[in-house]
Amino acid sequence: MNISVIVPLYNEAESLPELAAWITRVMTENKFTYEVIFVDDGSTDNSWQVIESLRAENPCMKGVKFRRNYGKSPALHTGFRRAQGDVVITMDADLQDSPDEIPELYRMITVEGYDLVSGWKKKRYDPLSKTIPTKLFNATARRVTGIKLHDFNCGLKAYRRDVVKNIEVYGDMHRYIPYLAKNAGFSRIGEKVVQHRARKYGKTKFGLDRFVNGYLDLMTLWFFSKFAVKPMHLFGLLGSVMFILGLLSVITVGAYKLYALSHHIAYRLVTDSPYFFIALTMMILGTLLFLGGFLGELVSRNAQGRNTYNIEKEITD
């Protein structure tokens, strides 16, 4: 199979027939073998009924329905696990992503050899309240990840199948799939200017809070990429340094006391010195950090079940 198209959606019943027809036309014109996997993220409208009707008309249409709303990352992860195409393409269901971009994205993966190609909506039809925070967010993401993409959050992306089978998308990490791919060893990441269309039906499902969460997720992902496999490298190091500094401070306070006693110099009790308690506190904190790193090692080696979602219905072959 040439292409798997994954479409996460939430309450997009109006746009689905038009999107499905558009994708089918593009695939037919280019003689691609394909599948379209609609992942219904707990919609409360009749989106699933529309997916069922699309399946009845075209066996290439498939669907997964969550019992409740989990978010875009779980929807993409579920689609990735089921994708069978050599090239996997993701797009939003709101018709703001154009299926006409699919042939060129496919070519960039199969001919130019990219592992991942991310869309760049250079000209956007969004208000300034959305575009300005987006530019700041993307600038920060480029700086932290070292990946020179203009639009990390663009839903229109293409992947070599090996990429989606070797990354784990959870929480709200869909914004950073290129970074996840890079950390998994897929470094050939490209970018393509794509058409951004004005929303035709409904309203956006995202608020300004996604930018705040985006920065927090970026810091989390950066930390995980550095220390998730070896948390002892951070916590153990910090704990050891703090413990040694505290120990040296205790020894220093004790040495002053012994020097004073040996030379019959009046000196206050060790327990009257604030430095003694600061040193003890540093030793205790150092021990706790070291133990935290050790426990983190145990957890990282035994983590499982993070991507388990309650699926209500599914349409497959």
Characterization of this structure:
Helix content is 49%, strand content 14%. With 317 residues, the chain is α/β, with parallel strands linked by helices. It folds into two domains: 224 residues, Alpha-Beta Complex (Spore Coat Polysaccharide Biosynthesis Protein SpsA, Chain A); 71 residues. The protein has an eight-stranded mixed beta sheet, with helices on both faces. Strand 1, helix 1 and strand 2 form a beta-alpha-beta unit. It is elongated, with a radius of gyration of 27 Å.
- The top-level CATH class of the largest domain is Alpha Beta
Question: Which CATH architecture of the largest domain is right?
Answer: Alpha-Beta Complex
Question: What is the helical fraction, as a range of percent?
Answer: 40-55%
**CATH topology (fold) name of the largest domain:** Spore Coat Polysaccharide Biosynthesis Protein SpsA, Chain A
What ranges have pLDDT less than 50 throughout 5 or more consecutive residues? none
Mean pLDDT: 85
What do we call the CATH homologous superfamily of the largest domain?
Spore Coat Polysaccharide Biosynthesis Protein SpsA, Chain A
Largest sheet: 8 strands, mixed
Order of helices and strands: EHEHEHEHEHEHHEHHHE
Proportion of β residues? 5-15%
- Count of domains: 2
